[in-house]
Structure prediction request, 205 residues.
Amino acid sequence: MYTALRLLILFGKTSIGCVNSPYITYRKLANDKTDARLVVFILLLVILYFAFASLVRTGMHNPYLLTLKFNTLIFGAGIGFMGMIFVLFALGRILDNVTTFKTLFILWSFTLLPTLMWFFFTSFFYLILPPPRTLSILGKLFTLWFVFFTGAVFFWKIILYYLTLRFGLRFDLFKIAAVSLIISPLIVSYSVAMYRLGIFRIPFL
Prediction:
C-alpha cells in the first residue's frame, strides 16, 4: 500500500513536470533508475478512458456491444502504442544510438498524457454539448476555445515527442527531423486504417 501511494505521488509530480518543465522532467525520466511501474498509472488512465468512451458512445443497453467497443479501442490503441515504440527502437539501433527499450517505453508512455487529456475533454464535451452545435455566439466561442485547446495540446505532444527522441535515443536535431520524415507515412497509414475500420476518427497516439 505504501509503495503504491509513493508511486502515485511520484506519478503526479512527474505528470505536472511534463506540463511545467518537460525538458527537466524528461531528462530525469531517461535515467536508467526510473521506476517503470509509473507507466501503470498511464495504462490505467487509458483503460479508464476507453471504458468511459465506450459507455458514452454505446450505452449500457447492450453489454455485448459495450464490451466489443472497449476491446476494439484497446486493440487499436495497443497497436499504435507498441508499434511506435518498436519503430523508434529499431531506428535507434539502425542509426547506432545507444538506448534501452525500458527508457524508450517510459518516455513514450508519458507522451500519452496530452493524448489522454484531449480525448477525455472531447468525450466530456460530447456529453454536455452534443453535436450538432449551433452557430450562436456561445457556439462560436466554444469552437474557438476548442481550436485553441487542440492546438495547445498538439504543441505539448510535439514537445514530448521531441524530448523522447532527444533523451531516449540521443538524437540531434538533424536525426530527429530525418526520423520524423520516416515515421510520418507510417502514422498516416495507421490513422487511415483506424478510420476505415471505424476504431478511431482521430488516431490515439
Q: What stands out?
A: The mean pLDDT is 86. Residues 63-94 form the longest helix (32 residues). The radius of gyration is 18 Å.
